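Field: COMPLEX_INPUT
Field: COMPONENT_COUNT = two
Field: RESIDUE_TOTAL = 710
Field: MODE = joint
Values follow.
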Amino acid sequence: MVAPLPAWPHPPGATVAEIGEHAIIAWIAAAAPLTSRADVIIGVGDDAAVVQPARNMVEVSTTDIQVEDVHFSWAHGTPETTGARALHVNLSDVAAMGAEPRHALLSLGLPATMPGTRLFGVLSGFIEAARAAGVALIGGNIARAPVLIIDVTLTGTAKPRKFLRRAGARAGDEVYMSGQAGAAAAGLAWLERREAGDDPGDAAIHGAVRRFLAPEARVALGVQVGRNRAASACIDTSDGLADALQQIAQAAGVGIDLEQETVPVHPAVGIVAARWSLDPWTLALGGGEDYELVFTVPKRARRRFLHAVRRSGLPPVTRIGQCVKTPGVRLLDVHGAVRPMPAGFEHFAAPGPNH
Amino acid sequence: MVAPLPAWPHPPGATVAEIGEHAIIAWIAAAAPLTSRADVIIGVGDDAAVVQPARNMVEVSTTDIQVEDVHFSWAHGTPETTGARALHVNLSDVAAMGAEPRHALLSLGLPATMPGTRLFGVLSGFIEAARAAGVALIGGNIARAPVLIIDVTLTGTAKPRKFLRRAGARAGDEVYMSGQAGAAAAGLAWLERREAGDDPGDAAIHGAVRRFLAPEARVALGVQVGRNRAASACIDTSDGLADALQQIAQAAGVGIDLEQETVPVHPAVGIVAARWSLDPWTLALGGGEDYELVFTVPKRARRRFLHAVRRSGLPPVTRIGQCVKTPGVRLLDVHGAVRPMPAGFEHFAAPGPNH
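Field: COMPLEX_OUTPUT
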């Protein structure tokens, strides 16, 4: 006997925007339970799904849709960076599961009037990035669409029990992040606010713009940490550092104390914030698209973790806080006092049912 | 040493529409060769890709993007049929590989103003169809988009050497198809041309409309034929019967003689053709979206094939022609004389380099 689908818990007039992504995913997760197939280990709600097609391996799969004028714009990036980016946002999800990326499917929605040379650039950027990552493009789909749509599905593999999930943090675990926070947000702010003829000039701005337009997923880092079982949880910062911490805390029913002074903020954040009077902590904690990895590490696994990080090469990781029993994510100053979250992030302190 | 990507063989000013889907896919196939990973068995260009993650199994994966007002329209279908359809077009690709469908990823592009109840209908239709097919929805992605975009990735599994590929037909093989040709094209013609208050009335029209709005992929049929190694090639008729035959012929370097009088044409084709003075053979041979399966069957496998068909239950299959040495697809009348292809299909007789 098949259970009926859960009811739609929203008023009849509510639009998709009013309901919100989190509530939509929550309904899908309830309607598509894990138990529907015995070989599904992780279903809806993590960075990627995990299935076990054979006894000695698990397969991770993720998909990410990029829409022209929503996720990318020809005003900023080139066709090549746009193609590479479409792969890297998926590589980041596979890396956050500690899996080695293997196969990609590329689904394209193309406007009929799109110049072929632009498509060539997108495809070249995607395929070059796939080659560099050891990923085989094995198939896909082409359709007409009103704007360019690039939807990538990426699979990867890991050994059973040697992948990283979002849920798994325990009170006492230390929290680490790779790279620097706010780089992409600072890069985007610069691209959107610069005046005609404005040159990045500064190497920090240049790096931040690059990080936004052509992110580099932390694949080797995720694979090493997963293979060495050196973290209790992992997530990428595609939706920003504050959101990543919130997701990790909520998935495990723990809290996270984020030690503000230890967060490695990208140097462009301060420059951009000063020039246009923006709040640097909103950029650093709230800005998405960095595609860094956040790990929680049990104290007993600390040496193993740092060893795995060194083996993976760049980027370095930084300890930024600790998991605690009290739910919620708190920002602590250097004296351990709770600071207010930057504007827009107060709701992270006391998560509601759909967040 | 990595080889450079192939050059873009089109004039700088050519648009995507001028270049065409086949030429784009041909470039991608050349730029993303099979050899990029040892575990890839079938890459770009079949109904689905095939990889071998473990010794005793292969995994088939496909993706299909459906765009509002391109592939579906609220003027015709309901949210529920639209969601179910998005799964079935992918089920059909997995069925055409002879694989058992297993896991789906659902990637959605949502307009902010889309009513939540409409999304609920789409999700319900998709998930109910997935349950019925034994498919687990394991993940996905939600993004903003100017129109509704439903991109599904579906994986399935088969035993090594027990899946069906597009390439493999040999001269002398018989050609079979499931169900009836032209149903979806007739249904769409009726939906687009009916006048206000027009009722299907006729059961044939009703069935054709249903076939267009809510196709049923021939999963059990594909699985049985694959498992019994009862066909030398298989493809679905998503782009129409003539295109399917052309793809099979070209992939194997053979020709196909299609015996016109044996093609099982859906009864709505004649009704619609008579009412609006349309060419019935254009609908039957050229009309896409039927999602029937076309097989080529070696004579020695004929009994095994028909046995597999019976085991799969409905729909019946019909022998519609034969593979021959001379390349190209020809339409033969009951006396064996070559007839002209319906308007728009002449180019199938002598395929060009990109077709």
